[in-house]
Please model this.
Amino acid sequence: MKRIFLFLVTNLAVVLVLSIVARLTGLDTWLAVHGQSYMGLLVFAAFFGFIGSFISLAMSKTLAKHSMGVQLIDPQSGNPTERWLLGVIEHHARTVGVGMPEVGIFNSPEPNAFATGANRNAALVAVSSGLLQRMNREEVEAVLGHEMTHVANGDMVTLALIQGVVNTFVIFLSRLIGGLVDRSENGRGGAAYFLTVIVLQLVLGILANLIVMWFSRQREFRADRGGAQLAGKSSMIAALEGLKRVSEPLPSQQFAAFGIAEGPVAGGLKRLFMSHPPLDERIAALRTLNIN
Model:
């Protein structure tokens, strides 16, 4: 969940900064005068929308390292646990046909893991200290299989493409509505136009993330299947059940590691903003798989 949250927040911030830059440099004004057609506005929106998304993707690995305090494991490490982690991920990487990612550990009492990066052959896989302490090795292998499936499927790149499309329509609609709110006779948008655009980009950007969240939930089911194929269905189910046991005592607002705490948060409108399906649904989906 953390990698999705970081990506979305970074993307929203980048798009807002680009909009401010476009205003300060006069690009918005030039568009208002010379590119008044819907097609011209759509091209402008797509350009900035995909730039924002791809900048977020390019920053994802570095941002995750610094924000989560990830300590990369030296490939020559003599620590037995670290050597074991590297060995498991190397085996998974060979099996799914991707390059060996960077591997790191970050300090957190919650069992957590994530994978990120713009290149499936140069990704980052990180696990929390809590994951290593609270789960046995078979369960950790399943969690790592889940994350390596994300890498193999290129989920971060696909997420960036979907976010780029979403950004395009957010930028397009915000400027279209802004033009209706404030458009002077010479075609130049005034202060009300700019304020309307910024506010709508924030509001529409948050709402548009419902699409991204739906996509993310579907990819989690695929990653669970991949983890079951790499480490065994029973191990993947046991890992999810372990996450459920750990998450149940926590407040419903707090998200658990690569899953979501059960309770009221799992229903109603809040469910639409979940990046991961409820753990019970994921476990039930795994039980129907015809694999060992």
User: Anything to note?
Assistant: The chain has ten helices and four strands. The mean pLDDT is 80. Residues 217 and 276 are 5 Å apart (CA to CA). Strands lie at 71-72, 102-106, 113-116, 124-128.
